[in-house]
Amino acid sequence: MKRYPLVNDKVVVVTGASSGIGRATARHLKSRGWRVFPTARSRADLDLLRGEGFQPVELDLADPDSVEHAVDEVLELSQGLLGAVVNNAGYGQPGALEDLSRSAVRKQLETNVLGTLDFTSRFIPLFRRQEHGRIVLVTSVLGRIVIPFMGAYCASKYALEAMGDALRMELGGGGISVSLVEPGPITTRFRRRVISEATRGLEMKRSVFAAQYARELSEEERTYKRPTDIFRRPPEAVARKIAHALEARRPRARYPVTGAAWLAEAAIRLLPGRLRDAIMASKVIGREVFLANPPGSAEA
User: Fold this and answer.
1) Which of 10, 143, 270, 285 could be joined to 161 by an S-S link, Cβ 3.0–4.6 Å?
2) What pTM value is reported for the model?
3) pLDDT of the residue at 199
């Protein structure tokens, strides 16, 4: 495994730090001696971060002007001594693909993929000049295996996985490491954001999946358990993996987090595609719907 230069100045920007994984990562890295510039979109979240002693930066990945201004501000605040970028910001657009508007899918990819790439790429010239740098992309177990009703989100995370692999090969010769962190079930406010996005660009009432939407998207907090809940971990578990990717002489290419992420990797390697479909669909859509419409079937 290749050894990469250590970061000379422990200065890092962490996107999506208003809550969950991003906030936990900012706190954890700060406790380890890093100077952290966390980003958030809303004034309220920026004020909360200031209250914790951070110098936060406003960033909306879906807005190219916001990306440009945020990069300029980070470089100014850090005096050009940035050592790492942690890309955590993003959201999940729920819904069966057939029910999503074109604009909803475009926004999902614009934020999670294009905005992330734009933000990251703007720091690469600096990393090349200083001949070291660390890039972390927080993807998801859903960037490796798909569940129904989150196809657009899964597509965005699959794209991040491909981007991370390409960047690692393209930048490795310049002393820049690129790692993918793949969380499974994590205790965050992510579900609340998913619920809020459900009303935008998603046709729910007239969908053949209306009953499933009513069950999955009506409450901010689930009142029932799923089998994967036994693997759920706090966001600090992800933060520790991110710290390793930033500080290790031999950072890993991928960091699965939680047992569910490891099981998904095993399923990809060992189970036939249609069997994986059957398992995932039966857990999410409901056995009665899945059995009536198995993958690959079509009405004659």
Assistant:
1) 143
2) 0.86
3) 67
